[in-house]
């Protein structure tokens, strides 16, 4: 049988062909008119992707670089901050803030659960000088979405910023940065934009800009003020990853051509299909507040996820994600964000059926696929009926 490798993880995700071609063709110096024209397209496209009229800065780094940039530009040693820790990446916010001397109020959330609004409000009320709330939009390690829009309502009228790790949230869920009052929002290139890793993006609200004035936490490369000055002139303070900027321009053009809301709907439909399929064959969805960017599925206890992940790659070329840290071999994660479509979602569900049956699970072949198809038709028919 022909086996075609497919990356079906929540990041890096499968690559958009136009982005690959643009990256391969990029050959320019970054201090030229050609780069300026390219970067103009990126700057404008990012505003649409983030749904903001404000600046979105670009750094040549992983998404974690964008997270650290938020900390060093906003937080001073001794500042009180609230960090929502519901998984691997919430833990990262917590550790970063502690490295720079912040007094962290950690809201530890059980894996697979969203933070409770009442707990955030209680923490804010108890810490009137709280500098910022740090939270994931989508905690991809547990495939869980947090109520960021509602948290932003709690911080809107306080001298407290909301800082959102939106790396697997943007492009897979409805996100309206300006309308919802989100202050610092971070994304990475290797997620919904369907391009390689290596770029981080950070949107900065007017409120955040004011709060950052006078902050002298040590930093050099990740200096928002310096980058903002350069990027408003369609340049970067340091040498950018030029080929990735070209890929980004192509990816953002793809998003703009269909509208970012179409990308949200796509992830939502694929996620709903997948949840319906897994539940139909008796598998439990890991999260109580499931994200649309990625679905976490509890592996059959007698198998563990390791065997399943290995066999699906061997038999079908599909690369899916295991759980992380203490969730390793307990769950597997199936991605829906970016350049994934119905055919890939349905094919992956069929491949999972095959592997589970091969490993001795007992259910009727085709049940999961049928459930996914029913869910797809229900969601897409309803959407078509709403169109004029």
Q: Can you tell me about this structure?
A:
- With about 400 residues, the protein is of the alpha/beta class.
- Helices cover about 45% and strands about 15% of the residues.
- It has a seven-stranded mixed β-sheet with strand order 2-10-9-8-5-3-4, sandwiched between helices. Strands 11-14-13 form a three-stranded antiparallel β-sheet, with helices on one face. A two-stranded parallel ribbon has the order 1-12.
- A hairpin with a 4-residue loop joins strand 6 (about 140) and strand 7 (about 145).
- It is globular and about 65 Å long.
- The model has no long low-confidence stretch (mean pLDDT about 95).
Summarize the structure in short.
By secondary structure, the protein is of the alpha/beta class. The protein has helices at residues 17-25, 33-50, 63-74, 88-99, 117-126, 148-155, 177-180, 206-212, 224-231, 242-258, 260-280, 304-316, 342-358, 367-386; strands at residues 6-7, 56-60, 80-85, 103-108, 132-136, 138-139, 144-145, 161-165, 184-188, 199-204, 294-298, 318-319, 321-322, 331-335.
């Amino acid at each position: 049988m022909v086996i075609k490798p497919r990356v079906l993880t929540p990041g890096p995700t499968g690559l958009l062909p136009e982005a690959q071609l643009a990256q391969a063709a990029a050959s320019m110096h970054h201090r030229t008119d050609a780069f300026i024209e390219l970067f103009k397209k990126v700057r404008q496209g990012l505003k649409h992707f983030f749904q903001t009229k404000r600046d979105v800065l670009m750094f040549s780094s992983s998404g974690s670089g964008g997270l650290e940039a938020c900390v060093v530009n906003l937080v001073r040693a001794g500042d009180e901050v609230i960090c929502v820790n519901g998984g691997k990446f919430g833990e990262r916010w917590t550790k970063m803030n502690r490295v720079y001397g912040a007094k962290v109020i950690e809201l530890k959330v059980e894996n697979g659960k969203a933070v409770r609004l009442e707990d955030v409000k209680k923490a804010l009320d108890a810490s009137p000088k709280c500098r910022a709330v740090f939270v994931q939009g989508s905690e991809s390690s547990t495939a869980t979405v947090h109520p960021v829009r509602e948290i932003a309502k709690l911080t809107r009228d306080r001298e407290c910023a909301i800082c959102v790790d939106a790396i697997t949230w943007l492009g897979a869920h409805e996100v309206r940065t300006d309308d919802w009052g989100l202050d610092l929002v971070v994304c990475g290139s290797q997620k919904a934009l369907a391009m390689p890793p290596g770029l981080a993006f950070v949107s900065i609200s007017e409120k955040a800009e004011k709060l950052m004035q006078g902050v002298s936490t040590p930093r050099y490369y990740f200096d928002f003020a310096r980058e903002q000055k350069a990027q408003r002139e369609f340049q970067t303070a340091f040498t950018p990853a030029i080929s990735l900027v070209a890929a980004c321009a192509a990816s953002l053009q793809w998003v703009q051509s269909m509208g970012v809301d179409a990308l949200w709907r796509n992830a939502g439909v694929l996620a709903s299909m997948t949840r319906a399929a897994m539940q139909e064959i008796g598998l439990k969805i890991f999260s109580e507040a499931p994200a649309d960017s990625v679905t976490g599925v509890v592996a059959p206890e007698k198998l563990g996820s390791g065997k399943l992940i290995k066999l699906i790659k061997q038999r079908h070329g599909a690369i899916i994600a295991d759980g992380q840290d203490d969730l390793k071999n307990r769950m597997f994660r199936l991605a829906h964000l970016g350049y994934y479509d119905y055919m890939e979602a349905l094919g992956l569900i069929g491949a999972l059926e095959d592997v589970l049956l091969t490993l001795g699970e007992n259910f009727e072949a085709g049940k999961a696929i049928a459930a996914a198809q029913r869910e797809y038709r229900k969601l897409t028919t309803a959407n078509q009926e709403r169109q004029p």
